[in-house]
């Protein structure tokens, strides 16, 4: 059970040696490390010095073809040897189309297998020191883990505390499409019987389990972008210790277990309105990790907010819980119910306000008590703030009513605060007055101040709080409280950085000078101090970031770099077919794009292929910007595919080859034809000819068309000597050999009506004019003779 704990020093030495040898073992393509030396010292009056000092090294290096090597070493001395996170391993190792993680040492991960939208449910981490193996893809992952449970300890510098409990389990997570994700976990916990005698506080009363097995299913389904439905169902069994030091996996539990656990509810969230409601029922066998107290409760919870306008936001919540689902008569039973309602406002003149009301009713039935213990509590809070030039003013009021077993108590906190900002200097100050009333009345006055300055890369800050208890009535002493924090963050030479913080806390209890007459015979003299508490602490950290190998683009994270340079890959391929009047045939030379980034062109058989495509969802489709002009896309131009490692994702497309029609207008030389219009009947397409009379229609689908000469656009003095409509078949496989011809000719000359009348008169005059001419001539001759 303690094989890892007993070898912590050896593990740390081995990891340190591995860190030193790693650059020589592998080609340095991209690597980084963070090295820090830190110490924390805590002491006080009557308190021994607590010291935690040591180095912390974290390193990672991407090894081409292997994966990402990561390691972390934290060792601290002082009051015994403590180790922080100790681990080393390879991540993202590509084997058989999966990314594998092989990690030895400390590991910890959330007990949530999928996203949990509810904040009223506490979900602890599963942490242990041992071995963890995981295999992952974009939509699926598996992991196996085994080790001894650990918890975080230490007042300022955290270190790992190994507990006498073995953790063993496996889990699977799966995404189905874009809406559903679920996970399944099996967990086995085995506790050493020595834990009962060495540290009984690690157990919750009635939860002293030696072995437990649980199977948990979690699911999250997204109906829409805003509406989700969460489900968690678990089944767990446990066996108790028969007695301290004895071991029996079949020992009966004191009461009948409730093995089923359930958490279910919907969640709706958007900018204007949100509502989350759930019902939880967790038995005592729900995740019984040593030192972590969850489970053993049931009840509903609902919370939401509503923003009718931009400047107003209402919110509220309500819950009702109870425990002791198994009805154990030796354990206390609690029932709680409460609600919270509030609103925040943005008021005129830059005022901001917030008000809320909370109530909580708690009843306890303790078998050792003759009657129930009842507690009714109410809290009313109000905040008002306003910026004023460089100042930020705030006023807050908290009023609490506490009523436990008919013993009422009232507390009121009133605080005024101002924060002043000038360039890189921030000053703050606040005064808080507390009034407490029960069997006596007590008024307390506290002062708080802060300062923060930033000069280039140097940052300094300080906080202090000072208060006095101004007591009256039957109170005979006063308390003085003083707390101060000062810190500094600054760069040192050669890339090293320093972080320093000092803390001091003083609490003095003295006689109330107003009541000194109550001790006339005491031998106090001038010493009126009853008790004094003085505690101080210092924290210092010197750290530096190292980088070697290839510079990461934009100073990015090395894990993102490894994911981009060692992805699991598959391929995308398909067929592009050309639709024609004679059937389908492969379309060559058609460009296809992947994620609007990569482009492939179809070959003579109409096939395209993208190789070495990282796993994940993609859009693949015809590249419309580079599509040849003699093609028109089919009904679908884009498709979504999901690329799996070592697999082929397929998407097929169709195109329609376009053809053309050409023709000519034949007319006498010198005829102006630019204004003539040729139309395609039944469409809105038309064209005009060149000066030589040639015209064409391009990008036409195959089929029969009727080409029409718009007679309204005939040149003046011309008429059509050919039909105005011509039917023709447009085919890409067999374009028409002969051109479409329209022929124009000059109109025949037409005489005007006046010319016709004159002509007719001339014709009539020529008929009787012989006689008239003879007569006339005779007359002219006769006369001439005379």
Task: Give an account of the 3D structure.
- With 786 residues, the chain is mainly β.
- Among the domains are: 89 residues, Sandwich (Immunoglobulin-like); 88 residues, Immunoglobulin-like (Sandwich).
- It is built from 5 helices and 45 strands.
- The strands form 5 sheets. The chain has a 26-stranded antiparallel β-barrel.
- A hairpin with a 2-residue loop joins strand 5 and strand 6.
- It is elongated.
- It starts with a helix and ends with a helix.
- 19% of the residues are buried.
Per-chain topology:
Elements: H1 3-6, H2 8-25, E1 30-44, E2 47-63, E3 67-78, E4 82-83, E5 87-95, E6 98-110, E7 125-136, E8 140-153, E9 159-176, E10 180-191, H3 194-198, E11 209-222, E12 227-240, E13 260-269, E14 273-282, E15 297-309, E16 312-322, E17 333-346, E18 352-365, E19 373-388, E20 391-404, E21 407-422, E22 425-437, E23 441-455, E24 458-471, E25 477-491, E26 497-511, E27 529-549, H4 558-565, E28 569-580, E29 583-586, E30 591-594, E31 598-601, E32 607-614, E33 616-622, E34 631-633, E35 638-643, E36 648-650, E37 653-657, E38 659-666, E39 678-680, E40 686-687, E41 694-700, E42 703-709, E43 718-720, E44 725-730, E45 740-746, H5 753-785
Parallel strand pairs: 28-36, 28-37, 38-45
Antiparallel strand pairs: 1-2, 1-27, 2-3, 3-4, 3-5, 5-6, 6-7, 7-8, 8-9, 9-10, 10-11, 11-12, 12-13, 13-14, 14-15, 15-16, 16-17, 17-18, 18-19, 19-20, 20-21, 21-22, 22-23, 23-24, 24-25, 25-26, 26-27, 28-29, 28-32, 30-31, 30-33, 33-35, 34-37, 38-41, 39-40, 39-42, 42-44, 43-45
